[in-house]
Amino acid sequence: MRILVTRPQPDADQTAELLRARGHDAIVCPLMEIVPSSAPENLNAQEFQAILITSANGVRAFAQATPARDMRMFTVGAASAEAARKEGFTHVESAEGDVGTLAALVGQSLDPVAGKLLHVAGSVTAGDLSGILGSYGFEIEKMTLYQAKTADILPVIAKNGLQRQEFDAVVLFSPRTARIFTDLVGQAGLAEYLGNITAFCLSPAVAGGLNSEDFLDVRVSYTPDHPGILEVIDAHP
What we know:
The chain is α/β, with parallel strands linked by helices and 237 residues long.
């Protein structure tokens, strides 16, 4: 299959390499650019009971902000956990799900009286992690360490490919990316061409950002990670 990969870099290249290794033609077309924000000069990671991470981008931004690697870290899923381990963090636990499952894992694993938590985030976040954990009695400090700048128009490689009906599928890894993709396609006047392609989504939440009737098919990953979405792609006729 010829598959459009919409993730920001460097994650887009990683996904594309995995797809190419399985015989697919992966076309990299990031719809967001990750831009680090300045971290507070007095950031002391050790003052927090644990660090909460909701994306691989958050992992990389936090790794740039502090040399510390031995604090307890909770990530939303396997991809962010893998990124954390690659950055050298040694105590990483993955919720294997979404913000709700991350909050549940933290609630089961930590004691609110043992200290405050740091939520490393981007300028736009999905879900209300602080609100959920606050209801459990935790004190949460949210720190914005990166911005995701979105494309203003559909990139030419995507526009031309859709018009020429060259794509068999698109892979979408976040609800925000799903919305951006469909919005930009609509603004370009190409919504009718979505009916020719299958959308492979990392989770039900990602699929929820789409109108399934616009696509030839919408498939959801078995698990919210690369192995799960690759398995769904392999199973597609």
